[in-house]
């Protein structure tokens, strides 16, 4: 459009505010567009360029561009440790497995001792790595106080390179905020926010001290968020708050420590097969935990679906496209997504209540 209406008028010196003339390479160029139209057209072209660049970057990251090698956070002697919270099942267990496969020694945290012992045994036998475990209830300030002190002692002698803040609690089922039990609110906020913040506060000095040394590898913190933090989610308001809050905290932390050799990323999943999602079968939009973790560890440093948002990433391909789509038309698409999510949660609640009723009758 701009090119069609720009005409070179060699030798012409006629210029007006509506048809400005520019001298380029010895030629006078007169623009046949009124200046306001030219400004609008330029602005439109820049906006279109921004979308084009971000979309092409998204496609390149999803197809050909490799992420940073996860092994690059290890020291040369290979005795680097990773701490994974909520590692007794789902996404956390898979992070523990895939990091062990890459040669990291692993500290697993969770509430159930027998499962933690089993996970430790599996990692040691299958991947020939060392493990430690810690039984801790993230929702309980007293359990955190006691067990985090123990963990602080435990990691003193370890080369800690990776922290995966995966632990998370959600609502038993979607529920209106006005009807949410106080206990459920406390459990979610304590686990997702306070537990994660205090653990990171405890371990960050170890990650910083290691990475600040000259020639040392960087350290990595992955905070597992949720699409419910990205799209404010009716009927999961408290969970949504905690994941949105973690997102802002994670970005603030990332910019604070990036100059000191610690890379912090907020990882945003949509649905993944797990106990929390109560989805048992993988599909196009719902990956298995192994597939989700593999795409996360394979794209470290890339934003993927979180194009244009600092220190965030939406790694799984179909989640990435959804996230990108939600941001495409600004508030129009964001509001649309909020309404779609609300409808989905109303529906999930109805089905969950019907199931509960059936189970009660069956007893
Ligand atoms: N699955 C999804 O669709 C989805 C979507 C978006 C985000 N996420 C996020 O992904 C992360 C992992 O979720 P997931 O789907 O793998 O869930 P999951 O299968 O329910 O696993 C949650 C893990 O957290 C642990 N945990 C929960 N509450 C705890 C507490 N108070 N103290 C200590 N450990 C506790 C559980 O241990 P126990 O064995 O003791 O229960 C389990 O190991 C969470 O942060 C979640 O918000 C999941």
From TrEMBL:
One Gene Ontology biological process: fatty acid elongation
Active-site residue numbers: 239
Keyword Zinc-finger: no
CDD domains the record matches: 17beta-HSD1_like_SDR_c (cd05356)
Broad EC category: oxidoreductase
Localization (cell): Endoplasmic reticulum membrane
GO molecular function annotation: ketoreductase activity; very-long-chain 3-oxoacyl-CoA reductase activity
Reaction it catalyzes: a very-long-chain (3R)-3-hydroxyacyl-CoA + NADP(+) = a very-long-chain 3-oxoacyl-CoA + NADPH + H(+)
Annotated EC: 1.1.1.330
Keywords: Endoplasmic reticulum, Fatty acid biosynthesis, Fatty acid metabolism, Lipid biosynthesis, Lipid metabolism, Membrane, NADP, Oxidoreductase, Transmembrane, Transmembrane helix
Statement: the UniProt record of this protein carries the keyword ATP-binding: no
Binding locations of substrate: 226
Origin: domain of life: Eukaryota
Membrane topology qualifier: Single-pass membrane protein
Membrane-spanning ranges: 38-65
InterPro entries documented for this protein: 3_ketoreductase_fungal, NAD(P)-bd_dom_sf, SDR_fam
Any one annotated GO CC term: endoplasmic reticulum membrane
Family the UniProt entry places it in: Belongs to the short-chain dehydrogenases/reductases (SDR) family.
PANTHER family membership: HYDROXYSTEROID DEHYDROGENASE-LIKE PROTEIN 1, VERY-LONG-CHAIN 3-OXOOACYL-COA REDUCTASE
Role according to the record: Component of the microsomal membrane bound fatty acid elongation system, which produces the 26-carbon very long-chain fatty acids (VLCFA) from palmitate. Catalyzes the reduction of the 3-ketoacyl-CoA intermediate that is formed in each cycle of fatty acid elongation. VLCFAs serve as precursors for ceramide and sphingolipids.
Annotated protein name in UniProt: Very-long-chain 3-oxoacyl-CoA reductase
Species of origin: Dioszegia hungarica
Organismal lineage: Eukaryota, Fungi, Dikarya, Basidiomycota, Agaricomycotina
